[in-house]
């Protein structure tokens, strides 16, 4: 029953109590035959109607909706208590037509505007003693039949093993772990059994498409396993979102953030090889340029210094002004590109 039904009940109670008061306080205005026979069809118009109305308007009592009182012929709406019944009852809020749902009762001198949002209510204790809002009903008395494929291809994803001693079926794998975590996250209990899709010889009793059809024919309630989501299977079952990614990946150790991290792949042998090639480049250019280029002439120490200077300075700028032959510039670029790449 809603709140309007509750008010109607209190109104009927007010009419009944007003009628009793008229009969006890004003017996002279009632017809004798009506009072004795209680036949409402014999009631005639009299001054009892005004007295009866006055008694109704003066009704004051505590009904199931709270305090009952009429002002100018209209019911004064009172706050309705919202009660949480769990091992007793506790008030979690109030409701009235003007303010809607509020966490506190609106008093006559209370000027604060109460929010109609149910978030202002006190916490509700739901069946089971939890404060979390239930997401569904407990599947009591029913155990879900969860079909699993029997395959040895990807045992990390799904694996079915029969224990010969206890004759129990042990189902493990990543897909099973995801399914169990999803069930644990629910706010209600779900009982289930893993049913292997196998024949009398312990082998898989068909293809993956046949396993999907078992759900369609309601032999299984669901299927857990390494089942590929393809278009032709959508006509028979609904799939969860993919939670596996079988692309090629690389597993690397976690390292600290360092600005010199790009130097990690460069080992000592590689540094020595790069330095040797730069020196070799300088020697080749010196051998070609020395007969005609004064920059590569002088004392032995100056020539050796020029070889090292030319080799390592090629990292930052071009040496076209030092070289007399374009072939040398092409050779330097070719050697550097192959060394650095």
Automatic annotation (TrEMBL):
Keywords, sorted A to Z = Glycoprotein, Ion channel, Ion transport, Ligand-gated ion channel, Membrane, Receptor, Transmembrane, Transmembrane helix, Transport
GO MF, one annotated term: ligand-gated monoatomic ion channel activity
Ranges where the Ionotropic glutamate receptor C-terminal domain occurs = 145-337
Tell me a GO cellular component: membrane
Q: How does it sit in the membrane?
A: Multi-pass membrane protein
Q: Supply the Pfam families for this chain.
A: ANF_receptor, Lig_chan, Lig_chan-Glu_bd
What highest taxon heads this organism's lineage? Eukaryota
Indicate where this protein is primarily found: membrane
Key word Ion transport present: yes
Write out the transmembrane intervals.
270-288
Q: Does the keyword Metal-binding apply?
A: no
Q: Where in the cell is it found?
A: Membrane
Instruction: Note the InterPro entries from the entry.
Output: ANF_lig-bd_rcpt, Glu/Gly-bd, Ionotropic_Glu_rcpt, Iontro_rcpt_C, Peripla_BP_I
User: What name goes with this protein?
Assistant: Ionotropic glutamate receptor C-terminal domain-containing protein
Q: Which species does the entry assign this protein to? A: Gossypium raimondii (Peruvian cotton)
The organism's taxonomic lineage, starting at the top: Eukaryota, Viridiplantae, Streptophyta, Embryophyta, Tracheophyta
